[in-house]
Amino acid sequence: MCAALAAGAGFALPRSGWADPAGISVAEALDAARERPNTLAGRAARKNILFGTSLNHWDMEDAAYLAVIARESSILVPENALKANQYRASPDRFDFGPADKVIAFATENKLAARGHTLCWFNSIPPWVPKTITSPEGARQELLAEVTEPCRHFAGRMQSWDVVNEVVRPDDGLPLGLRQSYWLDKVGPDYIDLAFFAAHEADPSALLTLNEMDVEYDHPYFETKRVAVLALLKRLIANKVPIGAVGIQSHLQYVGLSKFPFTPSVFSRFLSDIADLGLKIIISELDVPDRNLPGDVPERDSIVAKSIGDLLFVAASHPAVIAIVTWAITDRYSWMQHDPIFHRKDGLASRGTLLDEQMIPKTAYWAAIQALDQARR
Ligand code: XIL
What we know:
This protein has a single domain, classed as Alpha-Beta Barrel (TIM Barrel), CATH 3.20.20.80. It starts with a strand and ends with a helix. The relative contact order is 0.12. The strands form two sheets. The protein has an eight-stranded parallel beta barrel with strand order 3-4-5-7-8-9-10-11, surrounded by five helices. It has a two-stranded antiparallel ribbon with strand order 1-2. The chain is globular. The protein has helices at 26-34, 40-45, 63-72, 84-87, 97-108, 127-131, 135-152, 181-186, 190-201, 219-237, 263-275, 296-316, 362-373, and strands at 5-7, 11-13, 50-55, 75-78, 112-115, 119-120, 159-164, 206-211, 244-247, 279-285, 320-325. The chain is an alpha/beta fold. α11 packs parallel to α12. The chain binds (3S,4R)-3-hydroxy-2-oxopiperidin-4-yl beta-D-xylopyranoside. (3S,4R)-3-hydroxy-2-oxopiperidin-4-yl beta-D-xylopyranoside (XIL) binds at residues 79-80, 164, 248, 284, 334. Residues 79-80, 164, 248, 284, 334 line the site of (3S,4R)-3-hydroxy-2-oxopiperidin-4-yl beta-D-xylopyranoside (XIL).
């Protein structure tokens, strides 16, 4: 499975495969999932794809929920515990206890693990921009926020989201980069710096650039795809140790004819990424349904179609190695409480695969069907 390419000075470039880390390796996680053929993970394993979910450490008291996750998954992602605003309350503190709990659960249940996210404009601890104002101070803080989590979990993460949502052409900045504290203080090379530091601290993890709004057949999304590809080419030219792209897949516009999903357009984008030697992870799949009709059968069928259509294309593509849903049940979906993404009519969100009682919905069966019918 492992084919690390030597490149640049003093690091290996895992771009034509990915290293099996210690802990639960990809092969072990897939083998374990094959013993559960009638589950999402089992069906995905038949195509050599990991399937899993995010999990919040504060929801781990619910034993029935953990049982569902252990059954249906082969990869697990701490949903919030590895964001700096969660583990780094003050300059002298790195609290990996909550993330340790999630990763230990993964290991005990033979699930691979994935780290999310080292560098995200939206999870910078509030004290950082208030107290660190010099470029060198910011650079040191960025290095700490990358190096400490990578070192702590070294050998146990199948992949790490090194940077999250760094492209935003609407901001009008060079390279289509998003306006952020890191860009402002460290400059555009903060992305390169984060990847090099992550690779040094955890050489076996597949290093990922995670992005949103690249899924639809619409000029806004096309502009984003072009900017993402340009950034990837620049990183590769600079011999940055990037191994994969995460495509978040919060399918919030499907069902509103404004943003259609065209399989050939999405598939072309996956191939453009694969042509650069990179793997692909569908990293945060769900359907924010705040603008969808309240009627449950109607809403459920839109959610199911959105998920099925995207998964069929993704699971058919040879570069896709993992599919992760952002919570596997409506009971614990972020969309129930997010200030922007919750429904304004007071109805519960139904944007994941299992309902609040953790019973499979149409979306679950659409996912199973997409995995079964995927051409690979
Ligand atoms: C979300 C979590 O699900 C919420 O619980 C939290 O309050 C905010 O972050 N894109 C990402 C994820 O990359 O990290 C976000 O997760 C959802 C959008």
